[in-house]
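Anyone? Bumping this.
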Amino acid sequence: MSDIAIRVRQNFAFLTAVALFFVVYLLYQLVHPKGFSSAVLVQNSDEVFTLALVAMAQTVPVLAAGLDLSVGALMTMVGCFASYLLTGAPEGTPLALDLAGFRIGLGTLPGGGTGILFGALICLAIGAGCGLLNGAIVVYGRIQPIIATLATGAIFIGVALFLRPQPGGKINEDLNWALTNSLGDFASTVHIFNDGAAPWFAPFAGIPTSFVILVLILLLVWLPFSRTVTGRTIYAIGSAEGAAYMSGLDVKRARVAAFALGGFFAACGGLFLAIQTSSGNADIPQAGAYTLNSIAAVVIGGTSLLGGSGGVLGSVFGAMILRVISFFFRVFDIAPLLQPLFEGVILLAAVSIGAARVLRVKNTLELFR
Amino acid sequence: MTAIAAILKPSRDDRPILIAALFIVAILVAGTVYTWHRFGSAPLLSPNYLLQQLQIGAFLGIVAAGTMLVILISQIDLSIPWTLTAAAMMATSVGGPWAIPVGLLIGLIVGVLNGLGVAYLRVPSMIFTLGVNAVMRGLMVAHTGGFAPQTGATEFMRTIAAGRILGIPNALFVWIAVSLAVAVMLQRTVLGRAIYAIGNKEAAAYLAGVNTKGVTVICFALCGLTAGLAGVLLAGYSQKAYQGMGDAYLLPAIAAVVIGGTNILGGRGRYLGTLVGVILIVLLNSVLSIMEMPEAGRQVIYGAVIILMLLVYGRGERVTS
Amino acid sequence: MADAPQGDFLVLSQISKRYGGVRALENVDFSCDRGKIHAVLGENGAGKSTLIKIIAGVVGPDSGAIVLEGRQRHFANPAAATTAGVVCIFQELSLMPDLSVADNISIASPPRRFGFIDARAQRRRAEELLAEAGCEDVNPLLRIRDLPLSRRQMVEIAKALGQKPKLLILDEATSALTSADVEKVYGLLARLKARGVAILYISHRMHEVDALADRASVFRNGRHIETFDKGARSTAEIVQLMIGRDIATQYPPKPKRPRPQPALKMLNLGWDNHLSGISLEIGAGEIVGLGGLDGQGQKTLLLALFGVLRGVTGSITIDGRNTRPGSPGRAKSHDIGIALVPEDRKTEGLMLPMSVADNLTIACLDALTVGPFIDARKEAKAIDEGVGRLQIKVGSTDDPVSTLSGGNQQKVVIAKWLMTHPRIILLNDPTRGIDVGTKQEMYRLMRELADQGAAILFYSTDYDELIGCCDRVAVMYDGRIVRELAGDDLNETNIVASSLNIVEPQAAGGGHPGREKANV
């Protein structure tokens, strides 16, 4: 069998998800009155981003045969932190938490752009740190991931509620504008490429900024990580943990790293959501919905819940498929009361498609892994 | 094993139950100290208060009983929230003498559907029940137009859920009945043995001739049934059904089962543990409420308690060769 | 006990290891040298596995010293041992099924570029090592999951070679190999020996040990009994050292009976492309063997009879009635009465975390009930009978079955099935990895069951066993039965010849045609 044939066969589930997405999205653009325009692309990309990142966050622990039920809560918590840190207020403005009527002063942030950058880095660090906490509890506390992350999810949501008992806060308007529109707007806000008017830049100007950020995160964070020994160990653990240990791999470190990276991705999602909505909102049902949808995205994208096979890119496509389905409702003007029903049925059908393969299995023993 | 032997030298399955019981005592003590300090009284220790807590706990307890069965066979049921809500809504919609049977039937049907999807289509239970949950939500939103149903609970529903016989809440009797049924089934019947076998090693159970598919369907059916029963009771207690009434029951039910010593991966756990786990969670909630702890603090304490207890239980096996 | 001569590559002094109350190793002195293949022999529970695990760094000794190349060592984990040059190929493979062959071979320290794994260099390395191990036909891109078991074991060997072993340990490493691959491994070991690698070899297959080992050490009950050079001891003496008691005959006598009525009759059985045209009859009181090379459909046939496979064609007749069990639950039912002792006792035969008692009764619970409930007294009685009949060595039947030794675990599996009073017993390589003493008990038990009227179909990878135990042997090749051997025709030459699908049977005593390289 040729090399290409082998690769195709191994990635079959992922390729199916990609194909499915393109078919569905093409259909959507064709039906949309303003299809294939930059405005629609930007809107779609913005709506996909957070779910894509939360799905990426879910994928990494799943690859290591685990699960992270705290991704939605972590994302929400970081978003609430962001609503304090990314205000872009001038130098010297005091940073304070409003807690049950008390004001807790936290010092001051550097002003303007530096302050925003600093704030963003802190948010990402918080995400990675909380992911690390998840990993430590699972690895050193030796508690099963499902229940450990269930508990930490409650803790994260609690912290989010401490930060923002009511939705509030503020995000710097320029930041909001730059990141939620197309590259041209980004360039003009940040004053690069001749404020976006440079002639060589023209074909790129319509690309949604959020899409570019997503691609950058994939290329600069996930791709290199998956090529490291630790990254590969994550797959090894999901495939056969005992064998991985016997082969001399550092199983503990890899598992902790998996959760930490997941936390980092969730933080990216939370940051963007806060920037997009220009506020911090400790919305518990929304956090739960993101967590559950991330699991659906992971499965639709071809990653096995048992670990060892699949990848983050597949989950991104899974998230995109999920979102595009809801876009369809808008376009076809489906009665809002029927939307949840359609969503549910489609989700059920999507995950049951894999079952068709199972029905063809002739040796029942193979069904029990 | 006699009770004294069980306390002095607990087996691996008994240890979590003892620790959870100790935690319950600790919570009661801490709460009483607080109320004594703050209000000069000890409401936590009054029998009326405890009975009322048990009555509220009955709803969670019934859901947890079904959840435990599914967890024992290494599966999970994420469709409980909207199965519960759907049963409640349909029971109140239908009204009359058919209210309760309809609610239970809905739970049963959803459970069987879950079981078929997991056992025959081999879709991972986490994702299949997730989908079913979404479908149930969709159906209810479409049916009720997004609002709470106008019709209320029937008289009978209210009596069962909120009424008392000889001063003891009826809901408690229902919970006790469910508990006895589940405990006896797990310990003393072939079905119970089959459940533990499947949870330990489904392949070996299958090759030993156990009807693994049938047992899986039964466990999910029972879980759906308990969710339906809890929905009907809850509707009776609140006198109506409302959107999202089931959402607050899923995670606490799972937590109660795990705190009670059942292994989340299946195959191990005693029903007594689940019972103790439910009581612990309900008490914790109510003590926090007396302390007027804001939701933020409750969530953090809830999560921290679960982790703390699991750390104390003694952890999972280290992976070596 | 031989004194460890100076300059030996590996010297263990006074190594002891306890697991709870069990003494796995006691004051063991052991040494092995470069350029020699050193066999380690002993029953299950003799301490071989523990010895190997200590040398390979998987567990640490309670006391005693490990001296490697003149320096005392302390291995904290397998990686440390590998760095020191000790590479071990375990019985349970150390491969990750979802990763590629190339990834697996270089799993722990892959070639790197700027800190990232260099996929191309890794692939080249895999190709070189696969060639050296003799399986260059394996594409390094393939996932382990997509390879048959014998190829996986070869990949495992290639991986071990890549770790540049100074001491190579093989723990039953050839158990799943085809005979062609086994020859390649013999050649590889000879080359390694010539290069000065020390080789430790655990195997239960006496003919392999005879063929390969320069020296052999026998262990019994955690103690090192004796080390001797090749040829110094006869097979009978070795077995006696291993079990410590005299064994008169190896196999129970076969009764001379006329061919009985068939209890189980297969006509033209087929499945997928793994089985075709299987026609075989087994009578009550007969032990019929399934022979042939590994992977020719023997295990598949047993699964097909037991109702595990869907889409089986052909007919199965039991006691004159046409039946087709659709599941193990149906197969074990009273009117059909089939039992299957499966291939892998740890994942298919037993629920390891559950108690011995629960494992024993799981197949026959329906017979132990009173109404809807399990009758505790009936259950206790059945458990006692099961333990007694097979002489299962167990502390308390409430202990998890994982605490039992391999041989006793297999006894639990068999006892479990005997409780269903089967009339047809299918055995899937039941003596693999079992010590000599327990094997003998099993042979006696099989003959006893046959004498009581059961029809037994027995698959084994050991020709001696097939010849010794079975009344008839059906040799399979490529999913078909190519030859049925009985009486005087039942000898090693014929079995081997049919296994390789050589049409004309060679005369007995004309050498070992199976050992010639035939392309399988």
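Late reply, but here is one note on the structure posted above: Chain A touches chain B through 56 residues (CB under 8 Å).
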